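User: I'm preparing a small set of examples for a lab meeting where we compare how different chains pack in three dimensions. I only have the primary sequence for this one, and I'd like the structure in token form so I can line it up with the others. Please keep the answer compact; I'll paste it straight into my notes.
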Amino acid sequence: MATVKFRDETATGRAIAAFEVGGLPGRVTVRELVRVRVREEVARHNAQPGVRYHGLVRPTDAEVELNGYWLSASRRLDWEEQADVAERAFASNGFFVLLGDRQVESLDEVVDLDADPVLVFIKLVQLVGG
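Assistant: Understood. Below is the structure token output for the 130-residue chain.
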């Protein structure tokens, strides 16, 4: 079994957050890793629900804030719904994933976690007015 490290960085390479998940198969698709990441984030949020959510993608009816999202009320989130949103965000360039020194092109790409266990996520921020 392998351990993967999920790391968030800014577009300039500054680390924002990181966490690890163990017990994964040695070879897995990027889609499965994105879903594992979102499941873990939502589980952490749901263990102590609050009005702030620090995750890969914005929950429904949440507002963007620095390094996270503001929920209108404290509530539990559905990890599968969030994972579906994350898949759509990847497809529409809402974030990209780096594995080693290269950008992952497809959610269906198979990753060897024994050889390269770190995935870097970089969220892309839409510019106001353009």
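A couple of notes for your slides: The chain is about 25% helix and 35% strand. Residues 2-46+77-123 form a domain with the Ubiquitin-like (UB roll) fold (CATH 3.10.20).

User: Perfect, thanks.
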